[in-house]
Amino acid sequence: MKRFLAFDIGASSGRAIVGTLDNDKLVLDEIYRFPNGGMKKNDSFIWDISGIFSEILNGLRKYAKKYGSSVDGIGIDTWGVDFVLLDKNNDLVGPSHHYRDSRTKGMLSKMFEKVSKDEIFKYTGIQFMEINSSTQLYSLIHNNSPQLSVSEIFLMIPDYLNYLMCRRKCSEYSIATTSQLFNPNTLDWSKELIEKLGLNRLLFQEIVPSGTILGRLRKEIAQDVNLKENTNIIAPACHDTGSAIAAIPVDMRKYKRGEWAFLSSGTWSLLGVELDKPIINEKSLKFNFTNEGGVENTIRFLKNITGLWILQECKKEWENQCLDYTWEIIISEAMEAEPFQCFINPDDPLFHNPPNIIKSIQKYYERSKQISPKTMGDISRAIFEGLAFRYKQILESIESIIKKKVMILFIIGGGSSNQLLNQFAANSLNIPIKAGPVEAASVGNILMQAKAVELVNNLEELRKCVIQSFPILDYYPEDVNIWKNAYKKYLKFTY
Questions:
Q1: Is the peptide bond before 437 cis (omega within 30 degrees of 0)?
Q2: What whole-number distance in Å separates Cα of residue 128 and Cα of residue 108?
Q3: Which of 54, 204, 330, 428 has the fewest CB atoms lying closer than 10 Å?
Q4: What is residue 257's three-state secondary structure?
């Protein structure tokens, strides 16, 4: 019996989950959870990095109190794109900005004046979003930030947290690929792009594969949290989506790559397929797809979709109005609401980071000349339907690019427990869906740690363990013709 500790840190919360592996079955125990999110500082939107690390230490203490001083590995995964800069003394150079910070607004067009869109995509195969690390860094160049003149080290967020744990400065493969500064063909930083953007290539650290033992827990931390000093610090797939996709419960002997798709459902929805090689061509550029790194040097060919974030923001607005709507009430009211009253594209720029999401929804419907939904149930249903239709749009694009028909969709992450959205997705896509596990990122994190210490041999074996360890729910298409007709209306109002 082996025991591992995973820290899965998302943009809104973090959790410490213990995984006990025994006879090829994994049992999870969530021992600590903490809130996360950006904070305003002057005119900036930043992360409280020291606060996040303090919460990791709290999680370590919780582990030691419950399980004792011995653990076979500790792994950290986080959201992508955000980073820190360090000076020659390894101190932070300024704050770590949140990907929704306004400093990148309008910066893509400025960056394209320096290096063309086609050239950037040729080097990296990564979709274009203002939140990308490349755009964030270019905003520093464009605004003549003094930070770059004293910066000597660039680390993505989980790489920095790993550095604090064991003092090794390196970048794990999956998280590095989210930067739009990594070349998936050479499996290294794109030195050509980095230099053309005007960045110092010496900022960027050694790339290590997913499932690398980075070193041992620092002595002073081990003593502080009551863990053994020889505890392994392991890089799983440090991008949370990379860890989550590793934990897809797919029978790899039954379905070949390209025949099954994944949907990581949560604040963001990430819809795509797992491939052996990146697809970097005119069509993938046209549809703005991305080639992110997965475990065992696989490629996650996917597109980011604004996921349940819109509804999460609506819930906050309703709470501000003293309306106590639980998620159970929201889903129940959405089920009772009249279907297909109005249509919404969740990826519309109006929903990027507005001061008031409800007003932005109203503005969207005014602009598209639709009747705006009034009740909480109507708004919620429109969002759920809009997500399901957006999934269909993206999956059709994927199939046209890879020239294969997707036979089944696997939904993992927090949104996989949303039975209404899962059923809507099955109806819209007209294919069966398997949903779960909910804590896929933690599962993938833990099992990649197990692979690092040679308890798991390969990805196929890892996924067999997931199938054996967790309940997976099945969804099948219903009312297919009704949804087909509604999809035509969706396209009319959202293109």
A1: yes
A2: 8
A3: 54
A4: coil
Query: Can you tell me the distance from the alpha carbon of 77 to that of 83, in angstroms, rounded to the nearest whole number?
Result: 13
CA distance 301 to 272: 5
Residue closest to 231 by CA, chosen among 221, 217, 241? 217
Residue 495: what pLDDT?
64
Q: Known catalytic residues?
A: 240
Rounded distance, CA 353 to CA 342, Å? 22
Q: 338 exposed, middle or buried (CB, 10 Å; 0-12, 13-18, 19+)?
A: exposed
Q: Which residues, listed in sequence order, are joined to residue 40 by a DSSP beta bridge?
A: 45
Extract the tokens encoding 18. 């213990």
Rg, the chain, Cα only: 22
pLDDT of amino acid 118: 97
Rounded to 10 deg, the angle between the 376-402 and 309-320 helix axes is 170
Q: Which of the four CATH numbers 3.30.420.40, 3.40.50.2300, 2.170.130.30, 3.20.20.70 does domain 2-240 have?
A: 3.30.420.40
Q: Which fold has domain 248-436+457-495?
A: Nucleotidyltransferase; domain 5 (3.30.420)
Beta carbons within 8 Å of 320's beta carbon, 6+ residues apart? none
Which residue blocks in 368-418 are alpha helix, DSSP H? 376-402
pLDDT at 128: 95
CB 244 within 8 A of CB 414: no
In this structure, the chain runs to a length of 495
Residue with tokens 């930043």: 46
Helix (H, G, I), strand (E, B) or coil at 153: strand
pLDDT of residue 352: 81
Which residue type occupies 480? V
Backbone angles phi, psi at 389, to 5 degrees: -70, -35
Tokens of 126: 């990564």
Give residue limits of the domains in the chain.
2-240, 248-436+457-495
DSSP 23: T
pLDDT lower than 50: segments of the chain? none
Between strands 171-172 and 188-189, the pairing is unpaired
Alpha carbon distance 127, 135 (integer Å): 12
In Å, what is the CA distance from 462 to each residue of 26, 100, 165, 436? 10, 34, 26, 15
